[in-house]
Specification:
By secondary structure, the chain is α+β, with helices and mostly antiparallel strands. It is built from 18 helices and 17 strands. The protein folds into 5 domains: 63 residues; 47 residues; 170 residues, Ribonuclease H-like superfamily/Ribonuclease H (Nucleotidyltransferase, domain 5, 2-Layer Sandwich), CATH 3.30.420; 72 residues, no CATH class; 92 residues, no CATH class. It has a 5-stranded mixed beta sheet, with helices on both faces. The chain has a 4-stranded antiparallel beta sheet with strand order 12-15-16-17, with no helix packed on it. The N and C termini lie far apart (154 Å).
């Protein structure tokens, strides 16, 4: 049963009709369904025509006579059409006394048609055109009116695209669509339908997957290449994140994984312009063909069964059909194109993950998947980009490879320390040996003291030995050896005692030097001079 409005709503609609509001505008203002508005508009128009007819009957006889002259009876000829009794109404051409009301849906923007078309040719969009009309032409109607009119103009003059014929082995196109409902965890879901179509022969590969992540996207490519038995020179892709990180009209930023994949298989990845599916129309048609021909009205209990059916359908029907554009069998054309495809590489592509890491400012390592890898010290504190998988770790800084290592188990440090200084790569035994070598260089007493300290204090002695070695920067080796010898004699294996003894020896030597210096001062007379004074000799 149709909706019936209250009297107040009807009167409101009639007032809108009298002001020539469009059904769209009334719907936005009131929320009343456009079909309901249309039904009441017909009722209102019928009432308006009835009122117009009643008013015309009240005209004077003279006026009625002038109008009746425009009525012509149909000749009584049964062969004529319309039948007898039907009269023709001829609209008076020279009677301005009474305007005939004509209801039209003509757009309010139509009077600016030439100007709008000119601005469209200059590349302006609807909003820009609307703003110019408001400023330059005193336009007072809505922006929606301009937007709808621009849309109609674009439909009347669609953009022309050139048809490109692709040589064999030159190009393949890739796209995703929706697959048939497939059972998953007790419910039916639609997986993604991956399609790769060879642009020359129209040979296609179809596979349904649950995800569109980078790894799945690349594996679908590999399966397609293996299916075709080769690789084309160019692969046209859409701007999905698995292939293009940032879409751009002139320089789109490719996903590093997809770029590395293209180098491995030696093809050129070519992203289409945004919102231009016409640039990969062959695969767009291929997706629709697979959806409507193979998967329409079908359901599958698993992803594997749907893929098995797609392989059967491709071999039985898709490859044997006569293509609507080429007018040739798809498989026959593919047999001619196959020799022109590039050979497959001997190894499969090693997929890797990508992440950012900050180089530790203390030990110059980064953590990847729970393991630790050394980085050259000059990058300490910097953020680097890491490519890693189960086999290797590659580290980049500003697009430059700075480290390439095999992976180690979680919680382990990589054994290759070649990028670090030698003294930062020692283990505990190597470091202890380094300390004793330093002690031997300082002198035998220091070396003996270090050996005795290790025997008496075990591992606690190493910090003391390190302190004794550092004292060589402050005291000469001779003083340190004397201090260590005294400490050995006292059986005192303490850093503080050795330092105190070294300081005492240094002070004693300094006092002795000062005494010698004072005895030889020029203001002090020699003994010979005193003897001359006492004896009176000159």
């Amino acid at each position: 049963m149709s909706n019936r409005l209250k009297m107040v709503q009807k009167e409101l609609l009639f007032s809108f009709f009298s002001q020539k509001w469009s059904n769209r505008k009334i719907n936005k203002a009131t929320g009343i369904h456009r079909k309901t508005i249309s039904r009441y508009k017909k009722e209102w128009e019928k009432k308006q025509n009835s009122d117009l007819q009643n008013s015309s009957e009240k005209l004077s006889k003279t006026e009625q006579k002038s109008i009746s002259e425009n009525f012509q009876s149909v000749p009584p000829d049964e062969n004529n059409c319309p039948p007898i009794g039907v009269v023709h109404f001829q609209l008076p051409t020279d009677s301005p006394q009474h305007d005939i009301v004509i209801f039209s849906s003509r757009s309010k923007a139509a009077r600016y048609d030439a100007l709008i078309q000119q601005k469209l040719e200059q590349g302006q969009h609807a909003r820009s055109i609307y703003q110019d009309l408001v400023i330059e032409n005193d336009y007072h109607d809505s922006y929606d009116s301009i937007k709808r009119y621009v849309r109609k103009l674009k439909k009347k003059s669609p953009k022309l695209y050139a048809r490109i014929e692709t040589p064999p082995g030159e190009e393949a196109q890739v796209d995703f669509g929706e697959g048939a409902p497939t059972l998953k965890n007790g419910r039916y879901y639609k997986p993604w339908l991956f399609v790769m179509t060879l642009s020359n022969s129209r040979k296609s590969f179809e596979e349904v997957v649950w995800k569109q992540d980078v790894e799945t996207f690349l594996r679908c490519h590999e399966n397609a290449f293996n299916f075709f038995g080769g690789v084309t020179n160019v692969i046209k892709i859409d701007n999905l994140k698995s292939g293009v990180l940032k879409a751009h009209l002139y320089e789109p930023e490719l996903n590093p994984n997809y770029l590395a994949f293209s180098k491995h298989y030696n093809f050129i990845p070519l992203p289409c312009k945004v919102a231009t599916p016409q640039h990969k129309g062959k695969v767009e048609s291929g997706v629709k063909y697979a959806q409507n021909n193979a998967l329409k009205a079908k359901k599958f209990p698993s992803l594997d069964e749907q893929n098995a059916y797609l392989r059967f359908w491709n071999k039985t029907w898709a490859c044997t059909r006569i293509h609507g554009t080429t007018k040739r069998q798809v498989q026959a054309m593919f047999e001619q194109e196959k020799p022109t495809l590039q050979a497959l590489p001997t190894t499969s592509y090693q997929f890797f993950k990508i992440g950012n890491r900050k180089v530790n400012a203390m030990d110059s390592h980064i953590e990847v998947a729970g393991a630790y890898y050394p980085i050259p010290p000059k990058y300490m504190g910097e953020t680097v980009i890491v490519h890693f998988n189960s086999k290797y770790v590659k580290v980049y800084f500003q697009q430059k490879l700075i480290q390439h290592l095999f992976t180690v188990a979680k919680g382990r440090f990589h054994p290759d320390k070649s990028c670090l200084p030698d003294h930062k790569t020692w283990d505990n035994n190597q470091y202890v040996q380094h300390l004793f070598n330093k002690c031997r260089e300082i002198g035998p007493a220091v070396f003996d003291w270090a050996r005795q300290a290790e025997t008496n204090r075990k591992q606690r002695a190493y910090r003391s030995i390190q302190g004794i070695v550092s004292l060589s920067k402050k005291y000469p080796n001779q003083i340190l050896n004397q201090a260590c010898q005294k400490s050995l004699n006292q059986h005192a294996f303490s850093y503080h005692i050795v330092k105190q003894l070294a300081e005492e020896i240094r002070l004693q030597q300094q006092i002795q030097v000062e005494i010698n210096f004072i005895q030889e001062n020029e203001i002090i007379r020699s003994p010979q001079q005193y003897q001359q004074l006492l004896t009176g000799e000159k």
